[in-house]
User: What shape does this take?
Amino acid sequence: MKVALVHDYLTRLGGAERVLSALKELYPKAPVFTLLYDEAKVGAVFPKESIVASPLQKLPKLLRRNVKYLLPMLPRTVEEWDFSGFDLVISSSSAFTHGIITPTNTKHLCYCHSPMRFAWDWTHEYIEEQNIGGIKKIAIAHILKGIREWDAVSADRPDAIIANSRHVQRRIKKYYRRDSSVIYPPVDISRFKTSKSHEDFFLIISTLTPYKRIDLAIQLFNKIRRRLVIIGDGPQREFLQNISGDTIDFLGFKDDATAAEYMKNCRALIFPGEEDFGITPIEAMACGKPVLAYGEGGVRESVIEGVTGEFFYEQNADSMEEGLARLMLNEKTYNPNVARKQAQQFSKEIFLEQIKSAVKSVI
Assistant: This one.
């Protein structure tokens, strides 16, 4: 069986790229089609020899780094890929790649990380984040309207859709009017060691973008003056550093081994944003560490309140402070072995077996 993999962008390594990496393990000879590719950032995991980048790769670097300027071109670009000769295409989609066009005899299985949030439930926030007005604001609203129309139509193209959580499954039903099965993203549990001790710091591992709401954690830890370590990089880093006090450390991007070591030694993981699933809480539980998370999104399907962590239910520093107080009060009742057992339900081995079953069903 000849298989192709498709992924929106290969310009950083995050949770969606861990899913793609696991799919590549399952189909090592499969080429990976992607809109944009950054060898410097992802080449160690996805060598360029297996990559089929779109013609957008030839655009000037300034445009490639600002995908928002390319939005009107992206639907047409994914439609231009030719998958004749392939028996199966698996798309890993959080934006456009579910919209590929495949021949009649080619099966298309879509692993949906999320219907594109910037076009649907976060569209108003996305427009406001652009900090524009007048004609430009009207123009981007018009572009997003066209993308929503294309997205709704193109969602009929996959033969089957897999959601990465029940939370995403509900959004697929709402926006695409399609049924989907759920297969949780893979976590390589073997990379993490359980520890009952800690070094009295709290930890965030995240890309530094507005919707991750790292600013809330910074507000809180500035107030309570406890140590917070932040691993990750992104467009908000300078802003976040400027509002941080002397108890907050920014370490930038760290490799998996270093991040796992910090996870093992932290007191708890802080997860202040709403995510479609969220892999880092699973990784923290694999280390036996509790999680303090905003109680919306996919994290409600992984963290057990009062057992492997705590939730706060309003996205503000006061609500987060109340949740942190509960976590610290209950700290001695959390069992690292129970947390590890919970994390094992999301192992890579389970993911691969479930993907094999899904492929068998669609073929």
Summary: The mean pLDDT is 93. The chain has two domains: 3-186+348-362, 189-346. The chain is about 35% helix and 15% strand. The radius of gyration is 21 Å.
